[in-house]
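HUMAN: You are asked to prepare a plain-text protein record giving the amino acid sequence and the backbone structure tokens, both parts labelled.

ASSISTANT:
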Amino acid sequence: MGLASVWLSSFTAVRYENRDRKTQELGEEEILKLNTKKKICLGEDDWEPKRVPRLPGESDNVF
């Protein structure tokens, strides 16, 4: 039983090492591409709520 845990721990270590290697493989070009994406301005400072006109016969849903 003790040998099985030691044997399986080596497989688990290899699994996590491969996963870490995949996440860390970014070249300089890829990093520059990530930084040059177009930034989105939502205009949160100038935002105003607007009411949409209701259809005839539609309730106001006021509770």
The CA atoms of residues 11 and 24 lie 20 Å apart. The two ends are 65 Å apart (CA to CA).
